[in-house]
Amino acid sequence: MALQNIGASNSDDAFYRYKMPRMITKIEGRGNGIKTNVVNMVDIAKALARPASYTTKYFGCELGAQSKFDEKTGTSHVNGAHDTSKLAGLLENFIKKYVQCYGCKNPETEVLITKNQMIQLKCAACGFLSDVDMRDKLTTFIVKNPPEVKKGSKDKKAMRRAEKERLKEGEAADEELKKIKKDVKKKVLSKDGVSKTGSTRKKSGSSDEEQNSPPRIKDVKKEEDDDEDDDDDDIQWQTDTSLEAARQSIQEQLNAVTASMVMISTEEKEKEKKPKATENGKTPHMKLVDEIKENIKTGIKANEFRSFLGSLSGTAQEVMNALYEAVACGVEKGFSKEVMKKKGYFAAAVSEGEDSQLLLLRAIEEFCKKTNGFAVKEVALVLKALYDGDVLEEENIVQWYQEGLAGSNKSSSVWKNAEPFVDWLRSAESESDEE
């Protein structure tokens, strides 16, 4: 059976995975009883994931003729003699209105009927909800004959809920186990004569001169390490390296004059850690963003742009963050369209290897954290655009998503908005494996 890509805009794509059979028609009868039989209407409707009665009824509404689909025999008839090309054109209009997502043009959508009797298409790839024009004649027929609910959808929801409950129970069990281990450890330490604070020091008979003279910090640390080595080797000690702990330790060990001098030096070090502003009052990050913006405006070529990125100062992640911000900054809505316009620059930036794709994904995540507006809501559309543009690969997207859920920022709304697209990638992979 001859197959073709779903949607006229994808007809030239040899690797497009959504396909449907080519329409086959047959003229039956004579005179006033002449009819056009769409022989393979059932197969076409199955490929579009729509009932065959919808497509048959749409032909009748558009041609102004009576149409009927027989559920028992699976035959689709439209009164009158109609060319195959004409019906194929009407089918293309049906696909645009009732099959393809209005956001990403993906045909993997589900028909939903709201409480207000409105029809929406929910995309399984990007999660976008498309509002169907209710002025079309077919909408009345769809509302009266809603599509059957998939049995597997309820089962999947129940399985997901059960999985979440199991994870919660597992986390609670781990917490209880940790508490039990801590209690046992405290009992063992108390028996061995170790104090609850975890620090034991030996009393040394030092002279008055040694007590009055301010010892150096390195010597104090060395004495503490020697004292700790004498204790039980199985005990692991941890040192609090925060600024408050350093201040308290110095005040205890040094006299007033020496302590004040040391604290001035530590505060200066803390100030040095903070990002310094440039001469124009801009941070190094904003300076990188401005440099990349200026080069993009000049229309630099891909090879030259790649070498330009390599010449910038900063880590690879900092440069990638600045690149994405230079492209997406100032865009209030429609981030995926802007990303597709500048697709060549992202392709040049990630051409060095798969690690660079993870850097781009983390840059998208960082930009979404900063803006927390439409950039977060459209993160699935941006991922879909970069995936279709062969900039990002499926394995790297899934890896980035899993690391984000397991990381410290797992409650971010970025993962919630990216979940529909990642689920679609996983389902597409499983379907391809089955084929």
UniProtKB/TrEMBL annotation:
Keywords: GTP-binding, Initiation factor, Nucleotide-binding, Protein biosynthesis. One of its GO terms (biological process) is formation of cytoplasmic translation initiation complex. Pfam families: eIF-5_eIF-2B, W2. PROSITE patterns: W2 (PS51363). Residues 268-435 form the W2 domain. Residues 147-173, 189-235 are annotated as: Disordered. The keyword Transferase does not apply. GO terms for molecular function: eukaryotic initiation factor eIF2 binding; GDP-dissociation inhibitor activity; GTP binding; translation initiation factor activity. InterPro entries: ARM-type_fold (IPR016024), IF2/IF5 (IPR045196), Transl_init_fac_IF2/IF5_dom (IPR002735), Transl_init_fac_IF2/IF5_N (IPR016189), Transl_init_fac_IF2/IF5_Zn-bd (IPR016190), W2_domain (IPR003307). It comes from the Eukaryota. GO terms for cellular component: cytosol. Residues 224-235 have a biased composition (Acidic residues). The keyword Disulfide bond does not apply. Belongs to the eIF-2-beta/eIF-5 family. Catalyzes the hydrolysis of GTP bound to the 40S ribosomal initiation complex (40S.mRNA.Met-tRNA[F].eIF-2.GTP) with the subsequent joining of a 60S ribosomal subunit resulting in the release of eIF-2 and the guanine nucleotide. The subsequent joining of a 60S ribosomal subunit results in the formation of a functional 80S initiation complex (80S.mRNA.Met-tRNA[F]). This is W2 domain-containing protein. It comes from Erythranthe guttata (Yellow monkey flower).
